[in-house]
Design goal:
Helix content is 48%, strand content 5%. The radius of gyration is 15 Å and the shape is elongated. It has 73 residues and is mainly alpha-helical. It contains two helices and two strands; from the N terminus they run E-E-H-H. 7% of the residues are buried. The two termini are 27 Å apart. The chain has a domain at 27-72.
Length: 73
């Protein structure tokens, strides 16, 4: 069972009853990873074409660190 902290929904929508949060989309972890990935692949001098999964793995490691740091506050 995966118990990874995802940080919850990235863009929650308030439900019709006003108190329930509905979300059908990416988690905050996915959002952070996507933002990190954009920075990673834009770095000069680094080519990820031969190992694209490596860039994604690094992006999720950064995302996990961001989630961890966020929960310290």
């Amino acid at each position: 069972m995966n118990t990874k902290d995802t940080g919850g929904p990235a863009f929650p929508l308030q439900g019709s009853c006003g108190t329930v949060w509905e979300h059908n989309g990416m988690t905050l972890r996915d959002w952070f990873a996507g933002q990190a990935l954009a920075g990673i692949v834009s770095m000069q001098g680094i080519c990820w074409e031969d190992e694209p999964n490596g860039a994604a793995a690094v992006a999720y490691k950064i995302s996990d660190m961001m989630i961890s740091e966020r929960t310290k506050q």
